[in-house]
Write the structure tokens for this entry.
Amino acid sequence: MPETIFARILRGEIPCHKVYEDDQVLAFLDVSPLAPGHTLLIPKEPAVTLDALSDDAAAALGRVLPRLCRAVVAVTGAAGYNVLQNNGSVAHQAVMHVHFHIIPKPDAQSGLGVGWPAGRLEGADGAALAERLAAAVAASAQ
Ligand code: AMP
């Protein structure tokens, strides 16, 4: 795993505006927020992408994420929020350590802008794809 700025934050070598910490996760403010209150949640377990994370670390993130969302909404008063999690540079991941963005959406103009070039799922293709994915999920749980 490459050295990252988040690993340095975890080691206390670089400061951050800490929002929450326990033995498995750390949350802090994004240094370049899309909106005030933009918060990052990271596991202490080193992993580049979500699929590489242990079940334990994933569960720790899942426990804390809704709590952080509630706090962000309560403090910012945002009308909504986006949770974003990028994996791979092609998917806009810049820091190669798993992280979730919690991005307040104060109004339609600010916060995260999303392009959504939706296609159409055809019946037979959908059934075949879901079957293959289901088999892959079952295999990865073993
Ligand atoms: P991503 O494109 O999903 O990898 O996003 C990485 C995020 O990390 C960006 O939103 C950056 O602004 C943020 N970031 C980078 N360095 C720091 C830092 N030292 N403290 C807080 N946030 C940071």
